[in-house]
Design goal:
By secondary structure, the protein is of the alpha+beta class. It has helices at about 15-20, 60-70, 85-100, 100-105, 150-165, 170-195, 200-205, 275-280, 335-345, 350-360; strands at about 5-10, 10, 50, 75-80, 115-120, 135-140, 210-220, 230-235, 240-245, 250-255, 260, 270-275, 290, 300-305, 315, 335. α2 (about 60-70) packs across α6 (about 170-195). The structure holds ligand L2PXNNRO, 2-oxoglutaric acid and fe (ii) ion.
Length: about 375
């Protein structure tokens, strides 16, 4: 058994610091040729750079976002009001964490069924097509008692309680980062509400008490970058994703029958619609297929904030979006049920919402599902 994928308690362990220099890669990380990256560098997707300095109600902003969301579900925002130093700090903290010894990272080891914690390429969760990445995910929400949207305390507590006092500064950086992400998400929800003709407050109110997931993606270099994937083809099951790529390209979107890359813009955040918002929009807006490729030279990092509604809020489109020519595309469901489905029963891919709908209908008689979260 290769040292890099030694088994501990029957669990294959991915030690990126050793694997990333190896000329060969373990079989579990090889993806089928119809899913692996094409050798030619993907052409770029023309994703509009939306300037938010004009405010969420700006007609040009509303038009551009609506157009992009109906087409491929991706756009980028600039002049978003988030301090570039905070973003730089978030990347520096990510580097500091993922370059620590594996045993230290495993203090935050994700437990089966949980949506949070440290995962090294999901060994132990999936048997094949393992993604070439390490991730650290944590919840970002405002305890009801705290009122308002003070995501900061729960994020700070997560780092100090899970990783120790040495990680207080990480907790402070990500606490501020997540609060800023929540604020930006609500502003984008105003734009989406206007573009769908339901007004600026409908979706903003729906996500006011959001219970979101912050994920740090770390993609070590790989000596066979065309045989594996950092993150496999999927649509985000969540509602809205606000993602910051560092200066290393790798995010690709499937549009018009081919994979197109989104060039990193340090001052921009990439925003995409997820499955849950596709259901909220009664399928007016598309949750788009995307993936992340890796390279043989340098690590790639991305900060992904996944906006999610409160666990038990009913996901149902506003009545304005349902009529004879637009019947209900999906049944009512709670985010808790969809999250539980992706954590315990189904590996999120490009058909998650369809598979979930069938699963719901099949298990409508079973008791309500519950999910353990960190
Ligand atoms: C709710 C979630 C599940 C995943 C993280 C968030 C939103 C994106 C999902 C994911 C990235 C889609 C591709 C497969 C996945 C297993 C991964 O590669 O990380 C998904 C995440 C997950 O299930 O942990
Ligand atoms: O790392 C990236 O650029 C994309 C990651 C992604 O799609 C995800 O984490 O859902
Ligand atoms: Fe994604």
């Amino acid at each position: 058994m290769r040292a890099e994928t030694m088994k501990e308690q029957g669990l294959v362990v991915f030690d990126a610091s050793r694997l990333s220099a190896q000329p060969d890669i373990p079989q579990e990380f090889i993806w089928p040729s119809d899913e692996s990256p094409t050798p030619d560098a993907a052409e770029e997707l023309a994703v509009p750079l939306i300037d938010l300095s004009g405010g969420a109600a700006n007609p040009e902003v509303v038009r551009q976002v609506g157009e992009a969301c109906a087409l491929h579900g991706f756009f980028q925002v600039v002049n978003h009001g988030i301090d570039p130093e905070l973003v730089a700090d978030a990347h520096r903290c990510m580097d500091a964490f993922f370059t620590r010894p594996l045993a230290e990272k495993q203090r935050a080891q994700r437990r089966p069924g949980d949506s949070c914690g440290y995962a090294s390429s999901f060994t132990g969760r999936f048997a094949t097509k393992l993604p070439w990445k390490e991730t650290l995910s944590f919840r970002s929400y405002s305890p009801a008692a705290a009122g308002g949207d003070h995501h900061q305390q729960v994020v700070l507590d997560y780092f100090v309680v899970t990783l120790g006092e040495d990680y207080r500064r990480h907790g402070e950086v990500y606490a501020r980062y997540c609060s800023e992400m929540s604020r930006l998400s609500l502003e984008i929800m105003e734009v989406l509400g206007c573009s769908l003709g339901v007004g600026p407050t409908h979706f903003r109110r729906f996500f006011q008490g959001n219970d979101s997931i912050m994920r740090l993606n770390y993609y070590p270099p790989c000596q066979r970058p065309l045989d594996t994937l950092g993150t496999g083809p999927h649509c985000d099951p969540t509602s809205l994703t606000i993602l910051h790529q560092d200066d290393v390209a790798g995010l690709q979107v499937f549009s018009g029958g081919r994979w197109l890359s989104i060039r990193p813009h340090a001052a921009a955040f990439v925003v995409n619609i997820g499955d849950t918002f596709m259901a909220l929009s009664n399928a007016r807006y598309r949750s788009c297929l995307h993936r992340a490729v890796v390279n043989s030279r340098v690590p790639r990092r991305s900060l992904a904030f996944f906006l999610c509604p409160a666990m038990d809020k009913l996901v149902r489109p506003p009545p304005e979006l349902v009529d004879d020519s637009h019947p209900r595309a999906y049944p009512d469901f709670t985010w808790r049920a969809l999250l539980d489905f992706t954590m315990r029963h189904y590996r999120a891919d490009m058909r998650t919402l369809q598979a979930f709908t069938h699963w719901l209908q099949g298990s409508s008689s079973s008791s309500s599902t519950s999910i353990s979260t960190c």
